[in-house]
């Protein structure tokens, strides 16, 4: 396969990144239904990761219904079926669209956090904690923390142990990442915003770690409510100077969907 995948981000879950890259190729139609995935060895070389990482990534794709294995033949892209979700690109680049995307996240993230509090393992808690540390380190290093923020929420979703929720978040990822870029860019402009986000992440993680689904649901919902407030409080100059440019991937993702 001629496709060159996006680079692996140090510190983020490798199998997640490989699975997301392959899923993006499938959903964009560059890997079509019936196509055979590259061999395990080829994927190891492409991504510069271990065979274990590739196997975990392929397993995730199977759980999402994107691929299946044929004994003695390989792994093939399958028809994932009809998706009822549709977005109109003409509404994407606006402050209101970003708020609406965060509203979508609020509905999902609150329930995901509650389920994670009920089902998390010790390994899940460690992964969530590592993702918080990675996010803090990225910000201290001058990064925007978008990828690390996404990995934090993905670690929580994995702890929820619900493949349908994970599949929905995977599908929405191309749109939610664009909204996350906007919210984080806005939050980085004010120290109080950045501190609020850090505290909110800690509240979610603590509720999950202590196994309190009520507190986790409330913390997850409040995090999204506060994100909306921070967007609404943004300096008008932010949207004129950076907001539209940062939101552009929402439109790009919409236009490239098959």
Question: What is this structure's SSE topology?
Answer:
Elements: H1 14-27, H2 40-47, H3 51-63, E1 67-70, E2 74-77, H4 95-119, H5 122-140, H6 146-160, H7 163-188, H8 191-209, H9 213-232, H10 236-255
Antiparallel strand pairs: 1-2
Give a verbal description of the structure.
The chain is mainly alpha-helical. It folds into two domains: 64 residues, Winged helix-like DNA-binding domain superfamily/Winged helix DNA-binding domain (Arc Repressor Mutant, subunit A), CATH 1.10.10; 167 residues, GntR ligand-binding domain-like (Four Helix Bundle (Hemerythrin (Met), subunit A)), CATH 1.20.120.530. Helices cover 69% and strands 3% of the residues. It is built from ten helices and two strands. The protein has a two-stranded antiparallel sheet. A hairpin with a 3-residue loop joins β1 and β2. α4 packs across α7, α4 packs antiparallel against α9 and α8 runs antiparallel to α9. The chain starts with 13 loop residues before the first helix and ends with a helix. The C terminus is likely disordered.
Shape: globular
Calculate the terminal CA-CA distance, rounded to whole Å.
20 Å
Oligomeric nature of the chains? single chain
CATH topology of the largest domain: Four Helix Bundle (Hemerythrin (Met), subunit A)
Per CATH, the superfamily of the largest domain is GntR ligand-binding domain-like
Class from helix and strand fractions: mainly alpha
Low-confidence stretches: 82-93, 246-258
Strand content: under 5%
Q: Number of helical runs?
A: 10
Largest sheet: 2 strands, antiparallel
């Amino acid at each position: 396969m001629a496709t060159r995948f996006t680079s692996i981000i140090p510190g983020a879950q490798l199998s997640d990144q490989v699975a997301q890259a392959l899923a993006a190729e499938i959903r964009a139609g560059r890997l079509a239904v019936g196509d055979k995935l590259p061999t395990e060895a080829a994927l190891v070389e492409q991504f510069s990761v271990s065979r274990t990482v590739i196997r975990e990534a392929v397993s995730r794709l199977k759980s999402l219904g994107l691929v299946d294995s044929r004994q003695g033949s390989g792994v093939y892209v399958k028809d994932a079926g009809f998706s009822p979700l549709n977005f109109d690109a003409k509404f994407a680049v606006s402050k209101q669209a970003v708020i609406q995307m965060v509203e979508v996240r609020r509905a999902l993230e609150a329930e995901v956090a509650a389920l994670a509090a009920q089902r998390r393992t010790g390994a899940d808690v460690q992964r969530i904690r590592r993702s918080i540390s990675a996010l803090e380190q990225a910000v201290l290093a001058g990064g925007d923390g978008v990828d690390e923020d996404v990995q934090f929420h993905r670690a929580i979703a994995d702890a929820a142990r619900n493949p349908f929720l994970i599949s929905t978040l995977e599908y929405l990822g191309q749109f939610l990442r664009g909204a996350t870029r906007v919210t984080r860019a806005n939050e980085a402009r004010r120290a109080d915003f950045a501190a609020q986000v850090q505290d909110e992440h800690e509240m979610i993680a603590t509720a999950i770690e202590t196994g309190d689904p009520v507190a986790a649901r409330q913390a997850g919902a409040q995090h999204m409510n506060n994100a909306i407030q921070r967007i609404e409080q943004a300096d008008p100059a932010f949207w004129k100077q950076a907001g539209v440019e940062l939101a552009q991937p929402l439109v790009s993702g919409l236009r490239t969907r098959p």
